[in-house]
């Protein structure tokens, strides 16, 4: 078990290095840099520009050199200062990362919470109306573009006033709220983005759950359990579910990256201050340290999520634990 | 129609159970069915898959004929008529007095410029005419004409699905946008499938170190959230001309010299004349294909791993054929049925990728129309609540993606020998 986790952890290091290296390479290769806009500005002295150029080695177009200049301080926890905001980038993205984590986490809970019961029901009542309904939902979820779905929900929110149409919390009154009000307000703002983001993975999870459950229900031990006189409910919940859910946990690791990618568009439409919007804006403004820090953060989240999936899998599946 | 379908089904039933049933039907229906025919017959019986196929045929046909079917060009802006509501429900047959006419629309009077409300001008009727003359366009980039399927005479306007901020016809722009958004799926999948087959074939066939390196690259591509990667790649291309990129890539690889300048000249003559919008289109396709091949490569590698152990591959090698010939002529054709299925199922990735890029403002630029950049206009709660018809392109994205999914699922089921 410990060697298994250690191996997984070690495998994560090259991933982070490769991802940050590719990002740096593409940034170095991309035409122009942030200083181009400063050069246009006559009030900014040439000295300052030269100083910035030297500080961030923007004059060097050697990818490996530039990467090293970024990596060496980064390994010691220094990710540099944002070109635009003149703040330490790591401090800037901390809160943003938490927001993204909150959004993706609740989206995961939503999609699992819906997919597992529906998948089980669809398998148990195969070819009945509930199975057909699930098939419809999964096709809907697979096909609806998240941009369009988000916009539809914003429209719904704005028309009915049931939900806030965007943002992470009530900006105007946030200062005056009590703790409880803050909590409900945040949850209220979280609902619609969660639904959009959760729907992306929902279809896949549900299909997988259904086919796994059908497979499991045809096993001999299920028939034995029934023959012993156990009720269907007990057989499904105690005997079948635990075995059928196993591959879903593996899927969780894979779905994480698509979830994080989907978060970008959802955050964009709902004005959710998360990592996705940071990366988007930083790329647009060519704010290199900010992009690098945010990408590193993203990669770390990915690795952590995969590790959690492995832990879950090890917990559920004794074959891995005993290896 | 139904009768022939049933007849077909009957024949299928017999045709698929070759050798199990006794004699009876004439031998011509039981023998000589190629695998492709069997797949097609199985596919035909799948209702949703056929629905997807028909819908896609319709969509692509409309996209090809966009200029003809659309009453206006994508950049034809009636600037005095922003955010006019859809007129599809305002096509009248009876006028105010109750007398019957050829279907017509009323003239438009702007009522409130600030709130962008309009009312019908009951004094003027514009009958909807077929094959009217209007904006010039090209059919298939070749035939220049100005005849449109339908339209109304100037100064009348027909906005079937409303107009946008600059008074452009949303319906026309959806048709023109279909050209971009739908073709990117096809072009992208061709490129990424070729890369995927090549990489997968090489990795699976040679194995060892080559396999290890290529598969690690695939894993990184699959592990990284694609949209961020696409954005960063897109950033790398910037707004520079595509020919310059190719040129500097060659310079980087071979250094300065005769070959480099010769190559740059060719590249310049090919891409230099292209308009900016086509170059951006190509960049988007390249960026998406660069990410999209990974899934394909991994699956094909798995298939090739098992195929290369087959006797016929050993035989081909023993006959002295080169590795390249064995891979391309003997192994890869055996993965085709699978390749087609995965390709069909990954077309939505390209369509949605273009939508995402254009929506974020780094894809197809105005005044060029794409389904993604048309949705950008819907950001902002006020626009969205007051003029919801701006969302119309989203419905078409949904339908196109759904149709591709139906088609892909149907093909997968049909190609599966177990069913």
Labels describing this entry:
heterodimer; A: 323 residues; mainly alpha; MetI-like fold; 2 domains; 14 helices; globular; B: 419 residues; three-stranded antiparallel beta sheet; two-stranded antiparallel sheet; 17 helices; 11% strand; disordered N terminus
Structure commentary:
The complex is a heterodimer of chains A (323) and B (419). Chain A has 14 helices and no strands. The longest helix of chain A is centred in the middle third of the chain and has 39 residues, at 179-217. Chain A is mainly α and 323 residues long. Chain A has helices at 2-29, 35-40, 46-55, 63-75, 89-124, 129-143, 146-160, 179-217, 220-227, 232-244, 246-270, 275-285, 288-316, 318-321. The model of chain A has no long low-confidence stretch (mean pLDDT 84). In chain A, helix 9 (220-227) runs antiparallel to helix 10 (232-244). Helices cover 78% and strands 0% of the residues of chain A. Chain A has two domains: 2-75, no CATH class; 89-316, Orthogonal Bundle (MetI-like fold). Chain A is globular and about 85 Å long. Chain B is mostly helical. Chain B contains 17 helices and five strands. In chain B, strand 2 and strand 3 form a beta hairpin. The two termini of chain B are 25 Å apart. Residues 1-27 of chain B have low confidence and may be disordered. Chain A binds chain B through residues 15, 18-19, 22-23, 26-27, 29-32, 139, 142-145, 147-148, 151-152, 154-155, 158-159, 165-166, 254, 257-258, 260-262, 264-265, 268-269, 276, 279-280, 283, 291, 295, 298-299, 302, and chain B through 220, 222-229, 231-233, 235-240, 348, 352, 355-356, 359-360, 372, 375, 378-379, 381, 384-385, 388, 391, 394-395, 397-398, 401-402, 405-406.
């Amino acid at each position: 078990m410990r060697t298994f986790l250690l191996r997984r952890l070690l495998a994560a290091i090259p991933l982070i290095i490769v991802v940050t290296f590719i990002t740096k390479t593409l940034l170095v290769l991309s035409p122009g840099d942030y200083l181009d806009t400063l050069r246009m500005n006559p009030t900014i002295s040439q000295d300052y520009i030269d100083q910035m150029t030297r500080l961030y080695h923007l004059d060097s177009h050697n990818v490996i050199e530039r990467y090293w200049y970024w990596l060496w301080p980064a390994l010691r926890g220094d990710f540099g200062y944002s070109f635009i905001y003149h703040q330490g980038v790591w401090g800037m993205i901390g809160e943003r990362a938490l927001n993204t984590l909150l959004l993706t986490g609740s989206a995961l809970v939503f999609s699992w919470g819906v997919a597992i019961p529906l998948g089980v029901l669809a398998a148990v009542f195969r070819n009945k109306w509930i199975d057909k309904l699930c098939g419809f939902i999964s096709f809907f979820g697979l096909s609806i573009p998240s941009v369009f779905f988000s916009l539809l929900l914003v429209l719904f929110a704005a028309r009915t006033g049931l939900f806030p149409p965007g943002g992470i919390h009530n900006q105007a009154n946030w200062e005056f709220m009590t703790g409880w009000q803050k909590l409900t307000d945040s949850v209220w703002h979280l609902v619609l983005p969660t639904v959009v983001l959760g729907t992306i993975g929902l279809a896949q999870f549900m299909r997988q759950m259904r086919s796994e459950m059908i497979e499991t229900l045809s096993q001999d031990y299920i028939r034995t359990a029934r023959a012993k006189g156990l009720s269907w409910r007990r057989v499904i919940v105690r005997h079948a579910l635990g075995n059928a859910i196993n591959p879903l946990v593996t899927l969780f690791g894979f779905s994480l990256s698509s979830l994080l990618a989907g978060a970008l568009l959802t955050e964009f439409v709902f004005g959710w201050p998360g990592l996705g919007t940071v990366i988007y804006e930083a790329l647009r403004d060519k704010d290199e340290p900010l992009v690098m820090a945010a990408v590193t953060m993203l990669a770390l989240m990915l690795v952590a999520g995969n590790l959690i999936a492995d832990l879950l899998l090890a917990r559920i599946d004794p074959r891995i634990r005993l290896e | 129609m139904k009768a022939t379908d049933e007849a077909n089904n009957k024949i299928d039933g017999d045709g698929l159970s070759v050798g199990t049933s006794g004699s009876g039907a004439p031998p011509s229906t039981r023998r000589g069915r190629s695998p492709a025919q069997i797949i097609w017959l199985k596919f035909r019986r799948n209702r949703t898959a056929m629905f997807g196929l028909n819908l896609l045929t319709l969509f692509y046909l409309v996209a090809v004929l966009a200029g003809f079917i659309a009453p206006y060009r994508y950049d034809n802006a009636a600037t005095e008529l922003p955010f006019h509501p859809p007129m599809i429900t305002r096509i009248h047959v009876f006028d105010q007095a109750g007398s019957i006419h050829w279907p017509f629309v009323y003239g438009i009077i702007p009522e409130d410029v600030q709130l962008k409300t309009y009312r019908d001008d009951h004094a003027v009727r514009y009958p909807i005419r077929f094959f009217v003359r209007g904006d010039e366009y090209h059919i298939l980039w070749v035939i220049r004409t100005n005849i449109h399927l339908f339209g109304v005479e100037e100064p009348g306007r027909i906005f079937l699905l409303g107009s946008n901020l600059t008074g452009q016809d949303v319906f026309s722009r959806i048709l023109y946008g279909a050209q971009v958004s739908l073709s990117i799926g096809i072009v992208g999948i061709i490129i990424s499938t070729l890369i995927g087959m090549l990489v997968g074939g090489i990795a699976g066939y040679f194995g060892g170190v080559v396999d290890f390196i290529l598969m690690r690259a695939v894993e990184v591509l699959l592990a990284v959230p694609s949209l961020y990667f696409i954005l960063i790649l897109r950033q790398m291309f910037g707004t520079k001309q595509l020919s310059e990129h190719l040129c500097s890539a060659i310079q980087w690889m071979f250094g300065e010299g005769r070959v480099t300048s010769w190559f740059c000249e060719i590249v310049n003559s090919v891409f230099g004349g292209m308009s900016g919008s086509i170059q951006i289109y190509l960049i988007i396709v390249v960026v998406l294909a660069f990410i999209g091949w990974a899934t394909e490569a991994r699956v094909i590698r798995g298939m090739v791993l098992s195929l290369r152990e087959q006797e016929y591959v050993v035989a081909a090698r023993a006959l002295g054929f080169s590795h390249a010939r064995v891979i391309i002529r003997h192994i890869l054709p055996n993965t085709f049925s699978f390749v087609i299925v995965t390709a069909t199922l990954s077309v939505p990735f390209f369509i949605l990728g273009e939508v995402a890029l254009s929506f974020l403002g780094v894809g197809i630029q105005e005044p060029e129309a794409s389904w993604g950049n048309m949705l950008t206009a819907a950001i902002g709660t006020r626009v969205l609540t007051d003029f919801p018809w701006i969302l119309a392109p989203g419905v078409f994205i949904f339908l196109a993606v759904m149709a591709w999914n139906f088609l892909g699922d149907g093909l997968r089921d049909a190609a599966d020998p177990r069913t």
